[in-house]
Amino acid sequence: MSKALVVGAGIAGLAVALRLRKKGYTVAVFEGNAYPGGKLHEFSLGPYRFDWGPSLFTMPHLVTELFELFNEQASEHFNYIKKDHSCFYFWEDGTSFNASTKPDLFAKSLVSNFGENKVAVENYLQKNKKKYDLTAKLFLESSLHKLKTYISKDTLKALINFKKLDLYGTLNDVNTTSFNNPKIVQLFNRYATYNGSDPYKTPGIMSMIPHLEMDMGTYFPEGGMHNITKSLYKLAISQGVQFYFEERVENIAITNGKVTGINTRVGYYPADVVVTNADIAATYKDLLVAQKKNKRTLNQEKSSSAIIFYWGIARSFPELDLHNIFFSSDYQKEFNAIFNEKKPPEDPTVYINISSKNSPKDAPKGCENWFVMVNAPSASGQDWDRIKSRVRKKIIEKTNKILGTDIEKYIVEEASLDPLQIEKKTGSVGGALYGASSNSKFAAFLRHPNFSSHISGLYFCGGSVHPGGGIPLCLLSAKITSDLIQDAPIHGT
After folding, report:
1. How far is residue 276's CA from residue 455's CA, in Å, rounded to a whole number?
2. Angle of helix 61-68 relative to helix 471-484, nearest 10 degrees?
3. N or C: which end of the chain has fewer CB within 10 A?
4. CB contact at 8 A, 65 and 207
5. Nearest-angstrom CA–CA distance, 404 and 366
6. Residue range 49-81, pLDDT digits in tens
């Protein structure tokens, strides 16, 4: 039987392992950590449970279809609830807004709370949906590096409607043209952070991202985000996928332009196909040292990283929900600091995720588990210990002002992460959460392809390659990659 080896057990690595198993391959996954999931992991501080990394869950069908591949009823292994609100927003002047996941209610609330024109809001949301419908097949579900992608009906349709995609203006341009209230512009500019980009640079086509929350829904997995990892890992084990934990791959073996296997500290493992889920820059630096590199791709501007605090809070805050945003007073200055000055902003926007709102077991009764994050530049020599201390103080100040409390006295458990620590734990260069940023209209085309053009049998998946970072795109990356790989030949034929 043909053998496929997967480097890295992140969410894309798990998904591609399952898809290749379905194609008839014997599959083994090698992971340097002692656990699967990569960033999608969990840990506890005393009686508080925390999801280590990603906290937003959209497009759940990309998870459930992996169970359906093996004729399994997904609901017997993995369940989730749909949220009525995508996010609770707060500004320091006392303004707050609870964003409904129902487009009609969302539009009405923008009109009643901010005085926006109802027709303008509805047109904006409809245009977002149109952009997604026109481009999803091309940009998110297909390889941008194969000729057949460009001779399809979907591509022709996208080209005919090219002007409607807002590729030349920025996301901020689209939003300032669409809305009068600067708070609403800021709210929609925030969606650039979903792929670690700058709304004042990233193209206007990114305005389709809200469609994923409002028209397709925001969800919460029962048991927390880590349950995505746990359920897919159990499925992979049940289907015969082998896992080698704490066995870091040292290099990918190549002979005469063809992949032949991998080498680890334990030894050599032969393979017909190798898929790497590792960060693409780290893959070339560490695993493909002697191979030709696409410098233009690898030198792309990095996405943002993050400074994260995990706080066990000995109190509950009914005015907060699962997802909460405390906005900065000058958004453009914030992103200028991150991407141009390469430093955290003086007045950061604060994101607080509280999974205990939907999973009470994650915190003691009457308490909450706060995942507190601010956007930060990727690591490039900054003094993160000093920076982290300063950022923590600013988060406390903003939280106290918005919630009218002294949050410090309720913090009974604490841990933190900075970009350097993220790099060490995940292998992502500089701790960049999404690999490359999308601060260019050509960014989608510059992302590394899901296959090697000069090494037969070598493929790539995950957030640092096409189509990008975040759980849905990582799962789509796994699908694109597996579709590029032929079914395993039947033994003896």
Report:
1. 13
2. 40
3. C
4. no
5. 19
6. 999 999 999 999 999 999 999 999 999 999 999
